Known about the structure:
heterodimer, A: 322 residues, alpha/beta, Rossmann fold, 2 domains, 8-stranded mixed sheet, 4-stranded antiparallel sheet, 11 helices, 32% helix, 22% strand, B: 316 residues, mainly alpha, MetI-like fold, 77% helix
Amino acid sequence: xxxxxxxxxxxxxxxxxxxxxxxxxxxxxxxxxxxxxxxxxxxxxxxxxxxxxxxxxxxxxxxxxxxxxxxxxxxxxxxxxxxxxxxxxxxxxxxxxxxxxxxxxxxxxxxxxxxxxxxxxxxxxxxxxxxxxxxxxxxxxxxxxxxxxxxxxxxxxxxxxxxxxxxxxxxxxxxxxxxxxxxxxxxxxxxxxxxxxxxxxxxxxxxxxxxxxxxxxxxxxxxxxxxxxxxxxxxxxxxxxxxxxxxxxxxxxxxxxxxxxxxxxxxxxxxxxxxxxxxxxxxxxxxxxxxxxxxxxxxxxxxxxxxxxxxxxxxxxxxxxx
Amino acid sequence: xxxxxxxxxxxxxxxxxxxxxxxxxxxxxxxxxxxxxxxxxxxxxxxxxxxxxxxxxxxxxxxxxxxxxxxxxxxxxxxxxxxxxxxxxxxxxxxxxxxxxxxxxxxxxxxxxxxxxxxxxxxxxxxxxxxxxxxxxxxxxxxxxxxxxxxxxxxxxxxxxxxxxxxxxxxxxxxxxxxxxxxxxxxxxxxxxxxxxxxxxxxxxxxxxxxxxxxxxxxxxxxxxxxxxxxxxxxxxxxxxxxxxxxxxxxxxxxxxxxxxxxxxxxxxxxxxxxxxxxxxxxxxxxxxxxxxxxxxxxxxxxxxxxxxxxxxxxx
Lengths: 322, 316
């Protein structure tokens, strides 16, 4: 296997050092290969967005990060500001959750799509021509006219397509998608997802897809990482995760998904999600876990390889959930 | 757009008509007999008093007086000044250039100073921000006559850099003469605009599209210009418009302090001696300045925020 495109190794992020240093990520390791779609799944506050943003060198204000986050071998965490801007323009870009808030409402669509290219020194005319092509590739009709229009003249779904076009403008090798469909209507979600996956495949980009929707992640991703309280608790191929979830949290998440083919009501995971700051010693999920033993509270379980899956659970071998 | 302009012009006409009535009425409600001033305090024959009263229509009922006055106003005749024995329109027009220069100069200082201090405070949180907050607090709280005295004492008397008195003639001399008055006039409002700018920019800095722009490798200065300052222009322009219109009133103090013969000083001297035709004319001018400034700001807003381009409903 060649070196992965994105390689996150033991990434730990602490917020606002000083009086209330709060950890938000703890020892996160993951990788995304060229052309691979990888899902990052977890509840709100589990740290998936922070992980995703860290790949752009965007950390919360005052946060301190340890570990390494390499793109093609270059550590993003130690990059100079100029190199970081170059990385953001050319190598990595992100599709944000809410296009309505993420695109400046006072500026034209053309300004948004060409912004990164212009910052990189592309002449205005060339950038606009390229922007029109990009808009066409995401299915915006009359792309030339659209460039001169304003965000409020577009629907949320159309605006998210504009956002994707803007993200692709720098021909990135890695695309980060932070819940790109959460703010959209169900009917437009499918369209946006199909555009995203088509372009990812066409361009051979690596994609890190952040979502709280395990089913959606499984449908479009090759591999999936499951996060809980700032840690990765399980990673597997998408089929493996559905077929043989190893971690009790993954099992719980799958059981909580409503299903059309079954009359059984979805069962929620009891308790409420913890943030890493509140997590006790030992396994953060132990308090909500039906299979917890006294030793689960003693030490943080290290991720172990079990038949191609990495699971951070002491009882992973005993508890196979078919 | 043409329809909007027409409706706005109609609105302005109605505003001016209503305020003209209020101005005229309040001047007449003020205590004291205009006729006795018009005679300069001399004891005059009843015949002379009657003649004066006749000339200024003081015997007519209030509404008739108003109708005669407003009838003249629409043709540009504001009556005769009692203290100068001249046409009010001519008096005001002769003093208007000095006042407009002063207002323009002060407005420039306000916009440049207000934006600069506000932006610096918003972008450099910490010591710089706190310094600007304290400084703008003091500036806002300093009355312009205090600022005028301080500036004269420092820059005219001690350093001798700027004259303390007079209008000046010619561009360079005028700017030289008007620098201290404009600074005294601007001080309070620089503080106000700096605070408005700071607040508006801080609000925009927290918006998601600012972070998105940064995440796309746009250099910080471009992010501030195109996303933060650009989006903060709405409140900034609204406050600037009101402030610049209000400068016309504020000039009365500064012009008196610096011995400038402008419209503000004319207003003060006219109020003192109850020269009511002048007071009425200048008051109307102030109203006109406010409605014009508001109109300009309203016309600018759709250019700042494209979402306002097509107003809903018929509110003008």
